[in-house]
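Contributing new complexes? Match this layout with magnesium ion.
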Amino acid sequence: MSKRRMFFKMITASLLRRRSRMLIALLSIAVGATILAGLVTVYVDVPRQMAASFRSYGANMLLMPGETADLDRQSTDAALSVISEEKLLGATPYRYIYTEFMGNQTGEGKYSTQLKFMTAGTAFDEVQKTSPYFAVEGRYPEAQREALVGKNVANTIGVKLGGNVRIAYDRVKTVNVGETQTELQGSAPGYYDAEVSVTVILDPDGTIKAVAMDLSRQTPFRVAGMTTDSFTDTYGVTHAESFTDQFKGKQLPLILSQSENDPDDYIDAVSGATASSKAVVDAVNAAAEVGVNTDTQQITDTERVTMSFTVVGLLETGGEEEDYIYISQRDMEDLTGEKDRFDVVELSVSGSSEELSAYAGEISDKAGIEARLVKRVTKSEASVLGKLQGLVFLVTLVVLVLTMISVSTTMTAVVSERRKEIGLRKALGASDNSIRVEFLGEGLFLGLLGGVIGAVLGYVFALVVSREVFGSDLQFNILLVPATIIVSMLVSALSCLIPVKRAVAIDPALVLKGE
Amino acid sequence: MSLLEIKNVSKIYGELKALDDVSLSVEKGEWVAIMGPSGSGKSTMMNIIGCMDKPSKGQVLLDGVDISKESGKKLTEIRRDKIGLIFQQFHMVSYLTAVENVMVSQYYHSMPDEKEALEALDRVGLKQRARHLPSQLSGGEQQRVCVARALINHPELILADEPTGNLDEANENIVLDLFKQLHREGTTLIVVTHDPEVGEAAQRMIVLEHGRVAKEVVNQNFEA
Ligand SMILES: Nc1ncnc2c1ncn2[C@@H]1O[C@H](COP(=O)(O)OP(=O)(O)O)[C@@H](O)[C@H]1O
Ligand SMILES: [Mg+2]
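Output block (do not edit by hand):
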């Protein structure tokens, strides 16, 4: 038999065959290791648990329109792609509009004074993820034209579950006034081939708005009749408008009247200025586009849309949400005529405040929208976490010290109980070192057994704590098993230092003393 | 050269002289009994010879080495290598079996060897009880285990302090027979006893009184 085997035989026999005393030491180590393993398991898992718990207090990140991008489907998707899938617990878009209460479906119950409420369009399946604290009496809307009504709103308008609300929204439309005018210029030869040039202004629909003539190269007395408010045409008919007034409202090209029976929309030439008149018509027909006058003006106009909803849920949150009416995104689209436009997207993201900040920065960079942390939630999460971890650390320290005292006391008792045996071993030739190694060996063995027991019971303990406190299961960290065993062996060995010192000091001569 | 030579050794506890200028020598292979009334200094002498205590004065030469000058560590080595101890109270490790108790001595000396330990138990007639714990053995059997343990490392000197003090006559005779065997094999034996019968089994008796050698008797009837 090897020396090492004999060594293990001796220390295991000491523990297994002299149970009573060692059992106490084992018990204190096992209890210490159990509490330790349990606390550390909880400690390691607490950030995850806390994050999950805090998520029930609502969103911890908000997406808002940024400097370079609006908040719409596209920018939201870009923002969400930044956050890894398993970290994103929920993303709820909200579109908020002011709506006027119009009574119930038949219009009854409308107040004489205007009563306005904020109406939010959202995705209800996501709402339940980012706002788990929403207390809904009834249910969330599922079909179109169903609404979740805040309690305050319901009280104010006196609507009950199953009732109706009619709301009106004034769509704001922007209208362009002043027209887009196209300017054309052209020229044609007149008297003696002298040039006539024109500027033509077209309306957006292509009809002529105005024509300006440059007749400076024509013989002035000949063209005098072309610029007067009324003129006489070549057939002797007097027109109550000027020559160019005939052009207004007509489409290009223009046709010059050749006989008295020609249709009315033909251009009649001015008596005595037929060549110049023809030149003007030719110039207008030959005119080419030189530019578009875009000097237009926008004005806003409203269009009222009224919609009736069945109240399927009443919302109680204790917060401002009770002042809102919630409808589906589809209904919001119908009401506003706008698709995929959001005012805010609430996110619930699991992660430390550092991680969240990193996400927020990346979102602004990539999606161009603003991502804000809900400080109230992330801050208190961090501070509660810090306090809890500090507490666990302190308790762990106390448990360690208590375990050490207990084991040390037990081992000291064991040493005095075994004075004779130690003396005998020394008389048989054991060196001080052998005695040290044997006792530390027993201590380490105790620590090993206690650590194994502690790791198992500690996990159970942590599981119970986790279920009771956080109401969720624990993530088992396999590394904690060797860690618990090593720590309990260390603690046990440390606790044995003083008893071992006493053991070494025992005088072998005492075995010869009779008693 | 004598195996053990004690020269003018005194052990003084305050006013009390447990040993007072004692001189004696023991030859290799000799069987000596140390006798005397209680408090005469027998155990004190045993402790000094057994390298577990040092004299206040004088010299103790064991196999030519002056053990009165050695350090504690060195004394442990000498005790381990040269001396086999047998005690009145048997002193076994309570949670180890008979054979394991013998092996403890081997463990500190050199190498545990179960076969050899079993042979030693066989020699003291306890082969059948080798796997028993001390609590399952009678006093005589326990003392025989201690004898087996004392001789397992082939010590040059066996020191026995009242080896038969707690034994009945039958077991006393078994132990004495074992001593006789050991003596025949050339082992040096120093046996402390106040039992005249045990003392007379030795070659030579040294009687202590008040820490001094009162008389020395050579046993004329000694039969090897
Ligand atoms: N450690 C000690 N301190 C003080 N006195 C001691 C000590 N050891 C022995 N004595 C005393 O020395 C004397 C001799 O003791 P001891 O050798 O044990 O005698 P014996 O073994 O012959 O009965 C006794 O009076 C005893 O009280
Ligand atoms: Mg004595």
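Reviewers usually confirm one structural detail per submission. For this one: Chain A has a mean pLDDT of 85.
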